[in-house]
Write a structure and sequence with these properties.
- With 183 residues, the protein is α+β, with helices and mostly antiparallel strands.
- The chain has 2 domains: 2-39; 65-164, Ubiquitin-like (UB roll) (Roll).
- Helices cover 31% and strands 20% of the residues.
- It has 5 helices and 6 strands; from the N terminus they run ααααββαββββ.
- The protein has helices at residues 2-7, 11-39, 64-67, 74-81, 111-120, and strands at residues 92-98, 103-109, 124-127, 132-135, 144-151, 158-164.
- It has a 4-stranded mixed beta sheet with strand order 2-1-6-5, covered by helices on one side.
- A hairpin with a 4-residue loop joins strand 3 (124-127) and strand 4.
- Helix 4 packs antiparallel against helix 5.
- It is elongated and about 100 Å long.
């Protein structure tokens, strides 16, 4: 009885069934070919997706003076400030760097500016043109919240790591180092 039903199919149905069978056969052949190609000598299988690297552990806690971290301890801060070598004008260059790594500006500080920065946590500098302390953001509102102060190995420059509110440059740019040339 099944044979009778099969014979009763229309020619259009028979053609559709043959087409479907051919497509299935092509898929099987393509799968076998891909599998065989990956097994050939010299053809490497697709590498597995790498897991993300674990976060770097925090550095071991050392003496704040040894690692140059002025904000860690007020006693150590005084010691580290004493390591600063000021120029003949009593100034030292200070690089202001955002916590995201962007270098924002270069300014000058004297001992009083460094002391003020440590006491208030705000970026404080010496204005060479006005000959007075200059706390960033007092007039512009573009405040610098200093999170770390470091002295370089020679003691002749200081780094403020900070969170900048608004642009750091007086031109309105985020960084004073906006004029660049690629090499």
């Amino acid at each position: 009885m099944k044979k009778a039903k099969r014979q009763a199919k229309s020619p259009a149905r028979k053609a559709a069934a043959r087409s479907k069978a051919k497509a299935t056969a092509r898929k099987r052949t393509a799968t076998k070919t891909r599998t065989a190609a990956t097994k050939q000598v010299g053809t490497a299988p697709r590498p597995a997706r790498k897991a993300p690297l674990p976060r770097r552990p925090p550095p071991p806690q050392k003496d704040p003076v040894a690692r140059g971290d002025l904000m860690a301890d007020s006693v150590a801060a005084t010691s580290v400030i004493d390591l600063v070598k000021y120029d003949e004008r009593g100034l030292v260059p200070v690089v202001a760097q955002d916590v995201d790594g962007t270098v924002l500006m270069l300014a000058w500080a004297n001992r009083a500016a460094l002391d003020e920065t440590l006491a208030t946590g705000r970026g404080t500098y010496w204005s060479r043109s006005r000959q007075e302390l200059w706390r960033k953001g007092d007039t512009s509102g573009h405040v610098q919240e200093v999170v770390r102060v470091a002295v370089d190995c020679d003691g002749d420059s200081v780094l403020y790591t900070l969170r900048q509110t608004g642009p750091a440059c007086h031109t309105g740019q985020r960084s004073c180092f906006f004029a660049t040339q690629e090499l």
